[in-house]
Amino acid sequence: MTGTTRPVPRGYELVRLLGEGGFGEVVLARHVVLGRLVAIKRVHAFALGSADDLARFEREAKILATLDHPAVVRVLDFQIDERGDAALVMEYVPGSSLDALLQDGPLAPAAALRVLGDVADALTAGAARGIVHRDIKSANVFVQPDGSAKLGDFGIARMLGDPAVFRTTDGSVRGTPGYMAPEAGLGEGAVDARTDAYAFAVLAFETLTGQLPFPGLDMAQALVAHYSVVPPSADAVVPGFPAAAAAALADGLSKDPARRPLPRELVDRLQAVPAAEWPASLTGAGRAPASPTTVGRPSAREAAPPTVLQAPRSVPQLPVVPTRRRRRRTSWIVVAALVAAAAVGVAVWRLWPSSAPDALAVESVTTTLDPANGGGGCPSASYRVAASVTTNGGPGTLAFSWELPGGRTAGADSVAVEEGQRQVELSLSFELTGSAAVSGAPVLVVTAPDARRVSAPPVAYTC
């Protein structure tokens, strides 16, 4: 859909599209009565998967709406439209994403610590309600013109105690690999505020040095590095970086969750470093936010929203460099490295197959119609048609549309199918009105990866 055909919740009018992906879109809209600008994140019904997913999403939206904190992008409204799509209405935040600001290098320490302090306070407020953010990264931090910051995109957060925490319904890991704690990336250990603390330490490292602890790695390499490789010290990245600040960041990046300081504790340690100890190369690095942006606008390095991790084609090898003078010690190093590589390989194998996947193919489609006789009756009957699509587990795009009784059609749509995703659930709600009789069957029209038409049970509307 394009332009003014994009649906927005009741009471709002579309201003412009901000970003979109396979599972939904973000638009800038205006409240028709108050005139207030808002950012609306709409999640397609098929991305929610089931009624349980929708109920969980609605429950979390209500909890997030209570998270009224100046450093959190506020949730203002939640609606479900006639298509079954869910919409989160959020406050509009003028300014720039932290990711965009870091394109030119690290922030000056004073500016960086103000931003990190606001993000730490936001995470502390969320943790008090049992919320794990799950996707802390510079693209989800919005720096306002006055230098303050707001943390956004709690869209993949899960409440603690939910069995689906850090996983989709098929058990796949979600998040951004460059920031993921070892226990989150490889599915080991408890997931709690210390997991967010690791990602926050990555964010702090990036904000103060201008780069991630493990830059330039692909998805598999990043997860393996966070799991098994000691990150570089910040003073090795930025000459003259204060030793106390580097030690604080190193503790935040500890593989052991118990050793990590919580976000506010880490910021307190960084703020305790005297201003005179920061190197001149950083003290002149700060920049004012550039042109205004808004919540939901994709940034240069993280344009895609967090998605289920795609399959890497190989797992990086851990290097072993033997020496002649310490033969016995070298043999133990080799054995230890092989054991570590095997452990990481097994953990990564649990997430990804070892060979390249086949392209997406549809194996079967089953449809249902609920209720069979329509809900409400004359002069208006409501129906919901659903399709369960079984795939071969290959990645690709499922493109489709719906043909409805009475000659109506629903616009073309598509789903990004992840590798290993064997089931795709589609649904559409529609109404039949008026005094004329209508009969016929809704039809799911699949146009990719192959062409097929699948009819649902027929309707027989009379009035």
From TrEMBL:
ATP binds at residue 41. Keywords: ATP-binding, Kinase, Membrane, Nucleotide-binding, Serine/threonine-protein kinase, Transferase, Transmembrane, Transmembrane helix. Residues 12-273 form the Protein kinase domain. Its EC number is 2.7.11.1. The chain crosses the membrane at residues 332-352. It is an enzyme of class 2 (transferase). Residues 281-311 are annotated as: Disordered. CDD domains: STKc_PknB_like. The keyword Transmembrane helix applies. SMART domains: S_TKc. Signal peptide: none annotated. This is non-specific serine/threonine protein kinase. The lineage of its organism: Bacteria, Bacillati, Actinomycetota, Actinomycetes, Geodermatophilales.
